[in-house]
Amino acid sequence: MAGVLPVRPHGGFEETGSTGSQDLSGQAKQTVETISRLLADAFANGSVVSIQLNNLDSNGDYHPDVVGRLAGYQDDMIYMNEKAPMMISEIRHVIVDPA
Fold first, then answer.
1. Distance between CA atoms of 86 and 69, rounded to whole angstroms?
2. 2 in a domain, yes or no?
3. CA 8 distance to own-chain centroid
4. 21 occurs within a structural domain
5. Is 16 inside any structural domain?
6. How sure is the predictor about 98, in pLDDT bands with cuts at 50, 70 and 90?
7. Which residues span the domain enclosing 41?
8. pTM of the model as a whole
9. What is the DSSP letter of 11?
10. 69 to each of 66, 74, 99, how far by Cα in Å?
11. What average pLDDT does the chain have?
């Protein structure tokens, strides 16, 4: 799964676990193929990613994005340092920090 896809600009990438005061509305749903390509490229380059999961809170808003570097992946699971593993199928949107 290699390849570089363009990503939209995003300010304020911080490796803190969430993006703080972000808009919690849903980003455009990406295909599993697009998400897989973006994650594979980010892993290969050591890039920071911002991941929006499909989960909603009790108010119907999306949870804050999970932000960090990928530590690895296996089958449908991705691993980020000091964060719980995530299934790729549970991811709604990925942004790769262009820096």
1. 13
2. no
3. 13
4. no
5. no
6. confident
7. 32-96
8. 0.74
9. -
10. 10, 15, 13
11. 81
